[in-house]
């Protein structure tokens, strides 16, 4: 033993180990000045209790190890410093530093097996350097407003394996570029209203629960943050920014707002039914990351506002796992651009929104995406606020649906107008029969819009209540399908797009369940030639086009509107009949393109109306004539 009866010490280094394994017993040592214990090599073991009255105690390792095996370090108002350059410092003592701090640095290892208590008005615990540091006991600070815990490391890992408590409104600050882990099983990090700030390149994981009270959360920088334990954030607000990713696997309880900016992703993976705060997702002209929701009510029960500014990229609320969200959404702008566009996006599973969705901003659109093999259902009302010209743009290879419990409405406030642009290549099912929107409905290439009813222009129905003019219903390479029960008819005209802007043609699919469940277009006038020229925009299109009549219904599905050409020679219209069902042409048709009957029955006329176009006819199924008066058919028929 180097010392066995040290009871007091004054000045400088008390014991310094230069080689070998040595020990000293300090039965009840009282330090009367700043004191250091060091080890250059080997192991220095210090046994006994240490008391210091306002004088700092330092453990210094330069390749050697130091172990304190006593029960307590009573510091009065004395700092306890551990700086290990290589080597390991193991402190079994419970540390009480009064109004001073526990300060850890260096590149070595520090292990605190006892409890750490500080009433410092600064940082009660401050960790720096790039070492490996472990706090196995409880850590508690209570120094008023400034009584904080600071982790600002340049590497290594700092681990808290027990309860961590800031008994004041001090701040838990994690910065630098090291790793910090709170991994106490069944333990809690409590800040009692103090702020939690995570910045820099710090990588932070909370396996412990977190009780932050009304304190604010600020998560920024380039490091990733993961919260696996439950979080009680009270009325405290959240600000998530920077380029790092934040993953919240634990359930959140609280009412404070959450604001997401920056290019990092935010994942909310728990059922947050007890979180009622509003979520704001805002971007400027810079890139912004996504919010990914992977559980029912992952976004809580509050309102969600997603605002996309011109020139930004990446803004997107992503849904995954077949989840249901009950939030009321407000969407402004198109959202993420390019091949992953959309302000709300279904990335996996059949996902459902049951709250209302309000499109704000006026004069533009909000884009919603469903990826291949996924679906997105709007079961609440969706429509514009008080601004005019808001379009619902549907994109992606997946499916969409609008539930019978909700409607696509003209406006969720007053004065706005809404339109529907269904340009995804999956199926869009409109189950509502009371949609009141008055802007254009567009069906894009590869898309099928499945409706449960047809109504006249100006009357609420599956396709809204726009006027009956052909420019208000565009079918540009897509399909309008009816497969419900009951005969449905509409006086609405429609436009057939050409291939000018990548679409082309129109398909009417009559697949009602029984022969009486027919669809009929009874509008007086001619079909139009507008097509989709962009998101929420349309234009007259030149070029040839084909109207395809199909379906399985064998009743009298009728088209009274006149089928004509857009232009002679270069803008001719052709008609193709496919499917096992029956279609009846009742208009004074003057199209000059081909008529091709590949399956089922194409009937020309009924009573005294209905003509065939003047082009050649290829009949590989059934061509019938239903007029009761005399008529002349001069077409070449083969």
Explained architecture:
This protein is mainly β. It has a domain of 140 residues. It contains no helices and 69 strands. It has a 31-stranded parallel beta sheet that branches. It has an 18-stranded parallel beta sheet, with no helix packed on it. It is rod-shaped.
Oligomer: single chain
Kindly state the number of beta strands. Answer: 69
Global shape: rod-shaped
How far apart are the termini?
Answer: 114 Å
Mean pLDDT rating: 89
Tell me the radius of gyration: 36 Å
Q: Runs with pLDDT <50, length 5+?
A: 1-11
Q: Give the fraction of residues assigned to helices.
A: under 10%
* Helix-and-strand structural type: mainly beta
Quickly count the helices.
0
Main β-sheet, in a few words? Answer: 31 strands, parallel
Q: In terms of topology, how is this protein built?
A:
Blueprint lengths: L7 E2 L3 E5 L4 E10 L3 E5 L3 E10 L4 E5 L3 E4 L3 E3 L5 E5 L3 E4 L2 E3 L5 E5 L2 E4 L3 E3 L4 E5 L4 E4 L3 E3 L6 E6 L3 E4 L3 E3 L5 E5 L2 E4 L5 E3 L5 E3 L4 E4 L2 E3 L5 E3 L5 E3 L3 E4 L3 E3 L5 E3 L3 E3 L3 E3 L5 E3 L10 E4 L7 E4 L10 E4 L8 E5 L3 E2 L3 E4 L11 E5 L1 E4 L3 E4 L4 E6 L4 E4 L3 E3 L5 E6 L3 E4 L5 E4 L6 E5 L4 E4 L10 E3 L4 E4 L21 E3 L3 E4 L5 E3 L4 E2 L9 E5 L8 E3 L8 E5 L2 E4 L4 E6 L6 E3 L13 E5 L4 E4 L9 E3 L3 E7 L9 E3 L2 E6 L11
Parallel strand pairs: 1-3, 2-4, 3-5, 4-6, 5-7, 5-8, 6-9, 7-10, 8-11, 9-12, 10-13, 11-14, 12-15, 13-16, 14-17, 15-18, 16-19, 17-20, 18-21, 19-22, 20-23, 21-24, 22-25, 23-26, 24-27, 25-28, 26-29, 27-30, 28-31, 29-32, 30-33, 31-34, 33-35, 34-36, 35-37, 36-38, 37-40, 38-41, 39-42, 40-43, ...
Antiparallel strand pairs: 60-61
């Amino acid at each position: 033993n180097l010392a066995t009866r040290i009871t007091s010490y004054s000045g400088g280094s008390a014991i310094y180990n230069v080689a070998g394994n040595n020990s000293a017993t300090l039965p009840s040592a009282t330090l009367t000045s700043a004191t250091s214990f060091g080890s250059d090599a080997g192991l220095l073991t210090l046994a006994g209790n240490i008391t210091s009255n306002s004088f700092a105690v330092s453990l210094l390792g330069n390749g050697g190890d130091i172990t304190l095996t006593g029960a307590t370090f009573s510091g009065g108002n004395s700092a306890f410093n551990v700086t290990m350059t290589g080597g390991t410092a193991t402190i079994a003592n419970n540390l009480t530093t009064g109004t001073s701090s526990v300060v850890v640095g260096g590149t070595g290892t520090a292990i605190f097996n006892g409890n750490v208590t500080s009433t410092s008005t600064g940082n009660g615990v401050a960790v720096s350097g790039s070492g490996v540091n472990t706090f196995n006991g409880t850590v508690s600070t209570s120094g008023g407003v400034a009584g904080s815990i600071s982790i600002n490391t340049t590497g290594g890992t700092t681990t808290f394996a027990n309860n961590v408590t800031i008994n004041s409104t001090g701040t838990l600050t994690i910065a630098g570029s090291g790793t910090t882990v709170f991994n106490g099983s069944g333990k809690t990090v409590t800040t009692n209203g103090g702020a939690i700030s995570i910045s820099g390149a710090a990588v932070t994981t909370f396996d412990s629960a977190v009780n932050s009270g009304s304190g604010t959360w600020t998560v920024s920088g380039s490091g990733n943050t993961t919260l696996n334990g439950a979080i009680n954030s009270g009325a405290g607000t959240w600000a998530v920014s920077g380029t790092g990713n934040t993953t919240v696997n634990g359930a959140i309880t609280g009412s404070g707002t959450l604001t997401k900016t920056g290019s990092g992703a935010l994942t909310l993976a728990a059922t947050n039914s007890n979180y009622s705060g509003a979520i704001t997702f805002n971007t400027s002209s810079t890139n912004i990351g996504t919010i990914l929701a992977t559980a029912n009510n992952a976004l809580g029960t509050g309102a969600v506002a997603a605002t996309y500014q011109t020139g930004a990229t990446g803004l997107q609320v992503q849904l995954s796992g077949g989840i249901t969200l009950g939030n009321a959404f407000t969407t402004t702008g198109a959202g993420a651009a390019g091949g992953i566009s959309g302000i709300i996006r279904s990335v996996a599973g059949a996902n459902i929104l049951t709250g209302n969705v309000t499109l704000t901003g006026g004069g533009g659109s909000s884009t919603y995406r469903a990826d291949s093999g996924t679906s997105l259902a709007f079961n609440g009302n969706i429509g514009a606020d008080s601004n005019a010209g808001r379009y619902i743009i549907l994109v992606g290879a997946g499916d969409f649906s609008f539930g019978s419990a909700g409607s696509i409405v003209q406006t969720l406030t007053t004065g706005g107008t809404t339109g529907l642009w269904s340009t995804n290549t999956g199926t869009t099912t409109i189950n509502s029969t009371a949609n009141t929107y008055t802007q254009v409905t567009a069906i894009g290439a590869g898309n099928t819009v499945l409706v449960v009813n047809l109504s006249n222009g100006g009357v609420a129905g599956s396709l809204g209540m726009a006027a009956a003019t052909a420019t208000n219903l565009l079918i540009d390479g897509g399909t309008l399908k009816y497969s419900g029960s009951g005969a449905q008819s509409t006086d609405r005209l429609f436009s057939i797009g050409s291939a000018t802007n990548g679409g082309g043609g129109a398909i009417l699919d009559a697949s009602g369940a029984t022969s009486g469940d027919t669809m009929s277009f009874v509008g007086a006038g001619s079909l139009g030639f507008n097509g989709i020229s962009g998101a929420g925009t349309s234009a007259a299109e030149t070029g040839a086009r084909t109207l395809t009549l199909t379906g399985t219904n064998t009743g009298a599905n009728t088209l009274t509107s006149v089928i004509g050409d857009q232009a002679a020679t270069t803008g001719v219209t052709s008609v193709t009949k496919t499917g096992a069902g029956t279609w009846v042409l009742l208009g004074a048709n003057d199209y000059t393109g081909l008529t091709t009957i590949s399956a089922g029955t194409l009937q020309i006329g009924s009573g005294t109306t209905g003509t065939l176009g003047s082009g050649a006819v290829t009949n590989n199924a059934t061509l019938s004539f239903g007029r009761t008066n005399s008529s002349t058919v001069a077409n070449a028929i083969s």
